[in-house]
Structure of Xylose isomerase:
Amino acid sequence: MRFRHPDGSTVHLAYCTNVHPAETLDGVLAQLRDHCEPVRRRLGRDRLGIGLWLAKDAAHALVSDPSALRRLRTELDARGLEVVTLNGFPYEGFGAEEVKYRVYKPDWADAERLEHTTALARVLAGLLPDDVTEGSISTLPLAWRTAYDDTRAAQAHTALATLAERLDALEELTGRSIRIGLEPEPGCTVETTTDAIAPLTAIDHDRIGVCVDTCHLATSFEDPHTALDALTTARVPIVKSQLSAALHAEHPHLPEVREALAAFDEPRFLHQTRTSTTTAGLAGTDDLGEALKGDALPDTSPWRAHFHVPLHAAPAAPLTSTLPVLKDALTRLVGGPHPLTRHLEVETYTWQTLPPELRPRGRAQLADGITAELTLARDLLTDLGLKELP
């Protein structure tokens, strides 16, 4: 979906296909047929933006076989779909029964991460619509925080600097500008937008910036305006933003609240949980189940968990979502005289790990839910003065 900003530029809105994880090119093509095109039809749009997630094997197939890339591009066009952004965070196995800490491997100190991201950039340059010259890729924020020392930090810095050089060369070759955004996430070396400033200003290249995920922003109790202003002041590019909402518990000391939270403690994804107190500052656990054990986390202040809940459907009381944080961030991102980013992506990948009574039953219900999320995002954008384009 495309929108005209009051300054005349185009803002793109997509939804991320990591909710339909596929490891192969055939699986990706099935996603387009079974999920993406039905969402486009429900929206009544001739064209729908999608943020593709391409696992290692699918990316390799596309970058090593020009005919495979042409096949994907043809299929996108035939189904009324377009791609200006990729989710390059998970490397493989995002549909596994247990993902948890595996999603952070390989990290930016490992050569595989550089090669995979380079492949994604080459693929994206070939998928961009004919009238679009800029693409974006989100990636993990350097590494998970453990076992990350000065040596690995130096390796990650070198890898990102090398990537920037490769992206320069790619633009010279194709005329397409691809940028990469580190996505701050709780528990990682770069947990917050503040953490991102030092390593990105050290690289000092406008092709390497930040992907602001509003669920992660909220989970770490960052104020959207303060965070985004700091990035702007530091001249760190906001390459893209993922529109998502975290799980919020206002009174985590109450038994009924803990019972409600326990329904979201599931075995597939990591749900980092945080609280902000006046005495201890930001405290947290790596997973929601850990927070619910005894006094592992102070419970005198609200808790937020890294669980991407549907934008249009906040959990039932006594829980809620951080949709207000998303709205504040979006106001700062695109509500000013000029957008801070032109690539927005709805990213709710947790539909099938919601409590059983909230999960969609079948493809049709999932498509209905994704359509409702995109409709909400569209309405937020038009309320900010952007005009939806055909």
